[in-house]
Design a protein that fits this description.
Elements lengths: L1 H18 L11 E2 L12 E4 L5 E9 L5 H14 L3 E7 L2 H13 L6 E4 L6 H7 L23 H4 L2 E2 L2 E2 L2 E7 L1 E6 H7 L7 H13 L5 E2 L5 H14 L3 H9 L8 H16 L11 H9 L5 E5 L3 H7 L5 E4 L10 E12 L6 H11 L2 H11 L2 E2 L9 H6 L4 E4 L14 H13 L5 H9 L7
Parallel strand pairs: 3-4, 3-5, 10-11, 13-15
Antiparallel strand pairs: 1-4, 2-3, 5-13, 6-7, 8-13, 8-14, 9-11, 9-12
GO biological process, one term: maltodextrin transmembrane transport
Protein name: ABC transporter, solute-binding protein
GO molecular function, one term: maltose binding
């Protein structure tokens, strides 16, 4: 299925290469780009005037604090186009996002428009089932994303039971290593695509008093993104992912376990900084950007945050080849979507925003803000580093996104989410982690 959905995207990637161009418990964390009450039920305005002018407010929620940069871009754009329209942006943490949305909507409050992961993790389906999301079939023109009228990997996550509930943020998300070029040059480290060379280099860094890596280990999503990266480099990893996609392999498959053991061996050797255990994504980015570590393994979507943390940082993209076949693999996923809250009091403004997000101009505004890797040929990357991130010998799916299809009655995504941090903290073993997820993969025979 993934291959069929990916066909259009691969063509887009070719065009781009030739042309050159989400996370802890506790209280919900919010960041408002403007002051005032952000509840949709109490927002004011939201009417289109006779001259096509929009006014009042539009409140947008994002499920990741690193996406605050999107709000800045939207405010700048609409301040010029509709100066009487106030954009309010709030960000939440991934682990609390679903409960925050459900609680707000249940109280007839919340955002007018909210970003989500589509059907990648069950949140959209859950709140659709609660009638909190407005169908967009008669609002959104999907031709930018579906050239032949068929769903693609980019757009497929926006549908629940074949009804459109979101407009894609049409980027390709992948996993990457950024490295500090100045640290490498100062100490004579040479980037190598060979996995054994990489590990030897990390050992030497430790001997030299240099911390090799950081990760946001308080966030399960950051931890499984690193797993994707390691799967791509480990023997049998790409085939394990493909067999999972074909519903032929469980998490406790020896190939999946081998990559998990490699991952935890890096932790045990001290490759990851001591601060990693307490890092969220923002802290991990800051640690790397300020020279605390030589490298960071993270999502491609954090490129803008890395640059924002240190404008003078001299960094590049480090790629690892698979230790078995020598090919460079890249785990990619669709990014997400914007949806309209069913209880919005600013429907005109919300519809205007969704209609705008169906244009190449809007997608470029969003992607440039995040320095994302474009997944449609109409948008080229603003940053050459984003182009480099998207270059690979073969693109395959991220592992987590395949889990739902491996279950009939089980909940492997939930098991995966709940057990990454305990695995990192040493509360469970690799075997226990693998078996807890595998037990939920009841569609695999």
């Amino acid at each position: 299925m993934f291959k069929k959905l990916l066909a259009g995207l691969l063509a887009a990637s070719l065009v781009l290469s030739l042309a050159s161009c989400n996370n802890g418990g506790g209280e919900t964390s919010s960041t408002e780009s403007t002051g005032g009450d952000s509840s949709a039920a109490e927002s004011t305005g939201g009417n289109e005037g006779g001259d096509g002018e929009y006014s009042g407010t539009l409140t947008i929620w994002e499920g990741d604090p690193t996406r605050a940069v999107c709000g800045d871009a939207y405010k700048a754009y609409f301040a010029e186009k509709y100066p009487n329209l106030e954009i309010k942006m709030e960000t939440k943490t991934e682990n609390t996002y679903q409960s925050a949305l459900s609680s707000a909507f249940g109280a007839n409050q919340g955002p007018d428009v909210f970003w989500n992961w589509g059907t990648k993790n069950g949140i959209l389906e859950s709140i659709v089932a609660e009638d909190y999301v407005m169908p967009l079939t008669d609002i959104a023109d999907m031709s930018l994303f579906e050239k032949d009228g068929e769903k693609t990997m980019i757009s497929g996550i926006c549908y629940v039971d074949d009804v459109l509930y979101g407009v894609p943020t049409a980027a390709v998300d992948t996993r990457t290593i950024y490295y500090n070029k100045d640290i490498f040059e100062e100490h004579g480290y040479e980037p190598s695509t060979d996995l054994a060379d990489f590990e030897a280099m990390c050992d030497q860094m430790l001997a030299d008093g240099i911390q090799p890596l950081t990760v946001a280990a308080t966030e399960y999503s950051s931890l499984f993104h690193v797993y994707d990266f390691i799967l791509c480099a480990c023997k049998g990893g790409p085939e394990f992912i493909k067999d999972t996609e074909a519903v032929k392999a469980k998490q406790n498959d020896p190939r999946g376990v081998y990559a998990l053991e490699k991952y935890m061996s890096w932790r045990d050797k001290g490759y990851f900084s001591p601060a990693s255990t307490g890092n969220d994504a923002s802290a991990a980015v800051l640690e790397f950007a300020t020279g605390g570590t030589a490298m960071i393994i993270c999502g491609s979507w954090l490129l803008s945050n890395v640059k924002g943390a240190n404008e003078d940082l001299n960094f590049g993209v480090y790629k690892l080849a698979n230790e078995e076949d020598g090919k460079i693999y890249s785990c990619i996923t669709a990014n997400g979507a914007y949806s309209i809250a069913a209880n919005t009091q600013n429907l005109d403004n919300a519809k205007m925003f969704i209609e705008w997000m169906c244009t190449a101009e809007a997608q470029k505004t969003w992607m440039d803000a995040c320095n994302s890797v474009p997944g449609i040929p109409e948008v080229e990357a603003a940053d050459p580093i984003a182009t480099e991130i998207g270059t690979a010998d073969e693109q395959i799916s991220g592992y987590y996104e395949l889990l739902a299809a491996t279950a009939v009655n089980g909940t492997p995504n939930k098991a995966d989410e709940e057990n990454w941090v305990p695995l990192w903290n040493g509360q469970i073993t690799v075997e226990e982690f693998a078996n807890r997820v595998a037990e939920q993969q009841d569609a695999v025979k």
